Write the structure tokens for this entry.
Amino acid sequence: MSRYLPFAIGILLIVGLTMQEFRMTDRLSGTNVSADERAKLISSVPKDFGDWHGEDKPVDARVQKVAGAIGAVSRNYRNSRTGERVDLWLIVGHARDVAFHTPDVCYVGSGFEARGKENSTYNLVLTGLPDTPMWTNTFFKEDVSGRTLLRVFWTWYNPESPENEEKVAWEAPGNARFHFGNTRALYKMYFTSEMRDPMETAEQSSALRFAKDFLPEVDKALLDMHHQLGGGAGHESSDKSTAPAATNPSETPDAPKTEPATEEKAGAEKAAATSTDQAPTATLEQAPTETSPPKTEEK
């Protein structure tokens, strides 16, 4: 019996890994309709708010394809009061692509070098919004035009998660590809700004100051998109459970709904008139559970 044990273990491992691959690549599903629909609305993210004014930049088709972006917004924002400039890169697509291509992959592929050996997490806390954990790192490149130093923050939002019903909660998981699995419409957002000083910290970054002003705006825009598309996970069932019952036009507004009387049940109408109305049972919608993201700040 024991001689067959290695074969049995091997078969179980193959089946388990195969199922995980199918889950990660979404091979059993159809077209990515959800991301297609969201891509049509992503450009509604505001260009102008407060002191910030944005200008759209052309999106290179090759870059968009490599990033797995079905919809993309590339925009440069300038603060009219301070003169600061920040680049926004906001995309939506399937998690198998969007979760993988992060700045430590993309920027290095474009000739930059990461200054930090590992990415750091920064937890942005704003009143009235869920905590926003973000990954961050700095990158540099030297060429004939000089030396370029950049600070980049990045984070994801999964509108299909039941925990994100009626809210926008950004996430920065350690293994994004595994965490988001086969999510068919995943948002990813970059904030990028040039560093004036090589010793500039995350707190001193223009990108972070922009993020503090921009997050309330983008969260509202994404939530509006979510509502325009009919909501996300659990929305349909929730609508069905809370929708009021149809009223027969022949009934008076105050009359309880009763089964129509027939000739064979002539006495049922009289009995129903004297019976005590049964109060409908109230249902409580459970609030989503929020998990506290890691509060690790870059020093």
